[in-house]
Amino acid sequence: MPNSLRSIVRAAQAAPYNRILVCENDGGYSAEVLEFPGCYASGSTADEAMRDLDEAIATWVRSELEQGHSIPEPIDEQFSGRVMLRILPSLHRQAAIFARAEGSSLNRFLATAIAFYVGARTAAPMTGASELGVRARRPARASG
């Protein structure tokens, strides 16, 4: 691999791209880079999945450059923590009832529900990566 390509790959591996680590139902882990569609790795441990993701990044970057594509920049948005949310009145009512039953404000109840859904637990910080956290895959809900 030419030195210039090697340096581009190393820069991509060290850049603060958003890496998503998921605990799978079988106990293994999968990892992907949000900005790199199809850049994916898996492993029996979180560490193994993240190590394999570095190799997947190298392969993905080389492939994109060979095809004449540019490498996207890391997503670097700032968030205030404030969200305007529109929901059905019936859902609003039900959430308010649950919040009251738990002795919580509606805001805290909704924040807790969202944190549970997206998996607000974060793994140990990773050098050169923006770690979005570990979340378990949830089975699809049955309708009816």
Describe the fold and architecture:
The protein has 4 helices and 4 strands. The protein has a 4-stranded mixed sheet. It starts with a helix and ends in an 8-residue tail after the last strand. The chain has one domain: Double Stranded RNA Binding Domain. It has helices at about 5-15, 45-65, 90-100, 105-120; strands at about 15-25, 30-35, 40-45, 130-135. β2 and β3 form a beta hairpin. It is about 40% helix and about 15% strand. The chain is elongated, with a radius of gyration of 19 Å. By secondary structure, it is an alpha+beta fold.
Please describe the structure with a list of short key phrases separated by commas or semicolons.
elongated, single chain, Double Stranded RNA Binding Domain, 144 residues, four-stranded mixed β-sheet, 4 helices, alpha+beta
Number of helices, where a helix is a run of at least 4 consecutive DSSP H or I residues:
4
Tally of strands: 4
The CATH class is Alpha Beta
Structural class: alpha+beta
Gross geometry: elongated
CATH second-level architecture: 2-Layer Sandwich
What profile does the largest beta sheet have?
A: 4 strands, mixed
- How are strands sequenced across the largest beta sheet? 3-2-1-4
Helix content: 40-55%
Task: Calculate the terminal CA-CA distance, rounded to whole Å.
Answer: 56 Å
Strand and helix map with partners:
Blueprint: H1 3-14, E1 17-23, E2 29-33, E3 40-43, H2 46-66, H3 89-101, H4 106-118, E4 129-136
Parallel strand pairs: 1-4
Antiparallel strand pairs: 1-2, 2-3
Helix pairs in contact: 1-2, 3-4
